[in-house]
Amino acid sequence: MAGNPFLNNLPRLSTGIRMAWREGYGLAELRGDILAGLTIGTVAVPLSMALAIATGVPPQHGLYTAIVAGLIIALTGGARFNVSGPTAAFVVILFPIVQQYGLGGLLLATLMAGVILIALGLCGMGRLIQYVPYPVVLGFTTGIAVVIALLQVPDFLGLEIGKLGEHFFDNLRRIGAALPSINIFEFVVGVFSLCVMIFWPRLRLPIPAPFIGLVAGTVTAYGVNHYFAGNGIAVETIASRFTWQIDGLSGQGIPAVAPTFSLPWAFPGADGQPLVVDFYLIRALLGPAFAIAILGAIESLLCAVVADGLTRTRHDPDSELIGQGLGNMVAPFFGGITATAALARTATNIRSGARSPLAAVIHSAVVLFAVIGLAQVLGMVPMAALAALLLITAWNMSEVRHFIFTLRSAPGGDIAVLVICFGLTVIFDMVLAVGVGIGLAAALFIRRMALLTESERVDTFAHLAMHDLPKDIAVYDVNGPMFFGAADKVLTSLRIVEPGIRTMIVDMEDVPTMDATAIAGLKLLLDDMNRHNIAVIFLGLQPRIIVKLRRAGIRKVRGKLAYCANIVRAKTIALRWDEAAKSPRDSH
Q1: Around Cβ 564, how many Cβ atoms within 10 Å?
Q2: pTM for this entry
Q3: I need a surface site. Which of 182, 255, 317, 436 has the fewest CB within 10 A?
Q4: Where are the beta strands (DSSP E) in 401-539?
Q5: Residues 413/442, Cβ–Cβ less than 8 Å
């Protein structure tokens, strides 16, 4: 392996575990991991169910995701404190997949996304995620929050509306039409659960607010269903909405069975029948799988960056991508949906005293225990309380204050990118929003860089080192990167040459880079100068740029083109060529 550069550059697995081990691990660290794992496991159980339901699949698949993907990513990833599982950000991508291709299609797309994530990690693409502009991230996360909040309104109000579709305004219209069917009891349960989750943290007690809120909502719903059942009044729960069938057995709510191996395509498609895998299905799912992978990479690495800031540690981005990929590849074989690192659970993990990825492993064990031992109790959780939990989640991820602050303080171009990303996420989908947002941000960056690049004629009389140059030698100063967005502006200014000029000295000391477009344009400029018998001397070009120019055929020619490292040498050559032009007998 020492002699194979490719293998030497491969990211290593389990970087998070190794970093924690190198710093020393004892009973105190173990105690912190256990307490943190129990805390985030308690939070993950209701949240995993709620997010699975919001995605359009039965709640147990969210729990299986936290168990399987959460365990594998913790053991193989490159971030010590990340806690992975189903997240709210994925709802707007996964919900349309379920609508079109069913649960089987979602699991297959997740498997494909896992392969893409591993490829990104092996290619060292982890560092590139940091180049996604902040307005793009803020725009689509706030848009996702709005979409998630809208999807919770029917369960929160107990509306008789059926399944919602993929389009925001159509769902908004349907919800408005269904408002007369509001169930006041479900609304009360939802409001009560929401208020408990909002005000519980003020008591500063160690028990997580989502757990207390769902317990309060469950007790309230049980009381309503028990005492008012004879009057035809009922609050919908997980058990009353969802059914399951496993190996000939069936039941209501959540099966008390650990995740078991099953081929992803054995799960039903949109028509309820087992998924038929062919080339056309793979091609149709490739776009959504790529979107899942990109969003998963962005969210997990941003989460790792935040965790690094809170703990003063460092993560391995490429190793984290591979760990995320492995988790998303394996989870679908056990009924798990898409997973990535969750910022809220990771922050809770750190605040609860976590010291290593073992906390995330314990979190997965807690969720597994809940599935096996508390399935019947989990079935009693009301849908309105889960909707309240997701409304809290949507509010937290919306970052309303940051959104408003950016609108007030950011430059106009950034505001446009933010608003467009937000609007496209809400009206269409996140895939389009991210693509257009990054494209607009890139165009904005190119424009800003182009404005920084300029070329101007130097007044030699006012320049100490060039005041004695004759009038037929012109000096130009070029500043900034020469790339496709700025090359034409710079080269056009260099073409404006006064009559009688025999030699041009082009100071390019402040040109940090030059791309293929600039090189091609520069070659055309030199051909034009050559036709007009004007010699060109490049001053201060960086050696690597000179190598690029020589490869493109732009080589020094006596009396026509030269490269000089300093102004003294450039002035000497310019005067010699100027003298030679005036006296043809002297070729030098």
Answers
A1: 20
A2: 0.80
A3: 182
A4: 454-457, 473-479, 503-510, 535-539
A5: no
